[in-house]
């Protein structure tokens, strides 16, 4: 590449970097994308060297630095991946960087697992990340965090006729083919974990039990959590730790019981609505509104997006909790 052609290529590359690093396209701030580059460049290079070592069947024979350099560089692979996760636009991003679509697809396949393996940021604990359910329960017990958990479904493409799992993904609630996940947050709505991917037909409570959440409650009796009525069985098994909305009284119940049920349900719903807002943050990313890719890549895509959302949520300051308990107007009963 010579003269004017090289200058034009450099200008176009600089423009593409500036455009794709904008928060409107990448979904993260420029400072955050710089932090991701510093965090993931080393693991990406290590994975690249491991692939090259396996391809040549041993250690390199030429000096370090010799040979063909990777093009595009890691930063130009990270930015298209972020735009792909935010807007689901791999082909258009390829045109911005003047490369083939297969190049961007390769970059997504390389960077997405690195983002998914990062884990979830912890509020007020910079540098600490939670990666498993055991980590979340240990953090909740150590910090006295009362967790909130809730399930959410993402619509996926219907499998072709004759393929396994065609009916297992149909959600009884939405009547669509979905993939469900479970999200854990603190009382401020800041994400602590989002995963437990399972077919849409599986019940929320069954999904968390397959992840050994009941065993975690037994091992850490000081941990408390609030959930919706889909986790009533978990609340019945651990009455002092997990809480769910009470059952509706019968029609012949007195007005006082009905009022107490409505008030208790209102307070419980007000306390756990924050995890619903956490799930709404995930739906701001296009792949988690309607996933049109291969189902085997959904887990990595969800974890990658959730890790980025948790980074932003962890930066929100801790605010004082307000009580929803009713109080007397004058402070004294007459």
Which descriptors apply to this entry?
single chain; about 325 residues; alpha/beta; six-stranded mixed sheet; two-stranded antiparallel sheet; 12 helices; about 10% strand
The pLDDT mean sits at 84
- How much β-strand is present in the residues? 5-15%
**Number of helical elements:** 12
**Cα radius of gyration in angstroms:** 24 Å
Largest sheet: 6 strands, mixed
Class by helix and strand content? Answer: alpha/beta
C-alpha termini separation: 89 Å
The portion of residues assigned to helices is 40-55%
Unreliable runs: none
What is the global morphology?
elongated
**Can you write the helix and strand succession as a string?**
HHHHHHEEHEEEHHEHEHEH
How many β-strand runs?
8
Notes on the protein architecture:
The protein is of the alpha/beta class and about 325 residues long. Helices cover about 50% and strands about 10% of the residues. The strands form two sheets. Strands 3, 4, 5, 6, 7 and 8 form a six-stranded mixed β-sheet that branches. It has a two-stranded antiparallel sheet with strand order 1-2. The longest helix has 28 residues. The radius of gyration is 24 Å and the shape is elongated. It starts with a helix and ends in a 20-residue tail after the last helix. The model has no long low-confidence stretch (mean pLDDT about 85).
